[in-house]
Amino acid sequence: MNQKINIESLGGRGDGITVSEGKTLYVPYTVTGDVVEVKVNGSKGRLRHVHQKSEHRIEAVCEHFTKCGGCMLQHVEADFYKNWKTDLIKTALVNQGIEGVDVLPIQISPLNSRRRTSFQAIGRGDGKLVLGYAEKGSHNLINIGMCPILVPEISSFINPLKTFLSKLLEKQQKMTIQVTKGDNGLDVIFKGKGDVDLNLRMDLAEFAEKHDLARISWFNTSLKKPYYEMLAERRKPYVTFGGNKVFFPEGSFLQATEQGQEALISAMLGGIKGASRVVDLFSGCGTFSIAAAKTATVHAVENNDEMLSALKNSANMMTNIKQVTSELRDLFLRPLLPHELNKYDVAIIDPPRAGARHQMTEIINSDIKTLIMISCNPITFARDVQGLTDAGFTMGSVRPVDQFLFSPHLEIISVFNR
Questions:
Q1: Which position among 62, 68, 71, 376 bears the catalytic label?
Q2: Number of independent structural domains in the chain
Q3: Edge to edge, what strands does the sheet with 185-192 contain?
Q4: Would you say residue 157 lies in a domain?
């Protein structure tokens, strides 16, 4: 059933919202002020036609927009977009009873800045394939030829990748290709079922040579415990944290953009001024550990052995930082306890999207004077920091950092002092 509606607001997930006959309707790819015709299916509306454009509506920058599910908000004007993203934080905090927080102007990464992505591919037979991203709310793959979000080095790699995979993938055969731009070239991982035979090894090594890839690896998804098998490493990929090179392993978590990374590091450094002993929880490869070690000794805690080893090995080669120690530990199962935390002046914590409720409880019960909280989820951020005020912490300004253009995702950093 088609219905003509006015879009009243933009929801937390990027859908336009209206209330019709007492029911809330969510319509992707619309914005506050649009008058649209939609096909209604339960609480979802599928956009059929824009009768009257909102003053906040602009032309999208990508030819695949609304088909590819990677972006939700390319049609939204910049100032409205900034305010909407900032309000995501304010709403999440207010919902947890936290009001009057100073939210700083949002720092948005530009177009062509995202340095890591995962492409999906499926063979169609006769040397044809589809490579790209899934349609919103579907497993249907949308074939892309460009992406305005990605760094040029990855975007220009799409067509060579398609050419290579068209000779490799059989009909209905699926594969994921994870691409990360290091400072010295692309790190490419092919994820598929089965072992790599000799011919494919040779083909992949030749592909790496032809396109000047830094490293190329295989990940056999059919194994009970899959692992990364390096096939060719022409250069050891690295990124730079606080001016120091960190050589990262296959499949590492890195901040999505260099601009976002630097904004978060800058805010973190402001929070640790005067500290001599810092603990970095969920340290990864050392985004914050290495930068903090310029002025303080750092203890990095992480559950991924490969990333922690990369951090240790890189730190051992540096001459312009203070001591960095490390600990392999699952902070969800075994959070650092108060007597362990009491050794440090400052705790830095950058948990996954689910947050770190148990570790936050131990921080509250410790004597830690300063906490720097980084989060990629405003809702779990608000939940995790809720008890800090009661424990005597004062919340500093919140810095929103948008590394995920045209999406509802957002990074946040704030400094708490007790």
A1: 376
A2: 3
A3: 141-143, 128-134, 116-125, 174-182, 185-192, 215-220, 228-233
A4: yes
Instruction: List the domain range (segments joined by +) for residue 297.
Output: 83-108+241-417
Residue 68 is assigned to a structural domain of this protein: no
What pLDDT score was predicted for residue 385? 86
Among 310, 291, 192, 308, CA closest to 241: 291
Beta bridge partners of 4: 37
Q: Where does 212-343 show beta strands of DSSP type E?
A: 215-220, 228-233, 238-241, 244-247, 277-281, 297-302, 324-328
Q: Taking the CB of residue 143, how many other CB atoms lie within 10 A of it?
A: 17
Calculate the alpha carbon distances from 153 to 101, 182, 185, 337, 373 in Å.
Answer: 39, 10, 8, 44, 32
Supply the pLDDT for residue 355.
82
**Does residue 64 sit within a domain?**
no
Q: List, for the chain, all residue ranges whose pLDDT scores fall below the cut of 70.
A: none
Q: What CATH number is associated with residue 196?
A: 2.40.50.1070
Residue 302 sits in the same domain as residue 408: yes
Q: Hey, what are 263's tokens? A: 């904004």
In a domain, 76, yes or no: no
CB contact at 8 A, 268 and 374: yes
Count of C-beta atoms within a 10 Å radius of residue 222:
9
Q: Is 376 a catalytic residue?
A: yes
Cα 151 to Cα 195: distance, rounded to the nearest angstrom = 31
Contact 121, 129 (CB under 8 A): yes
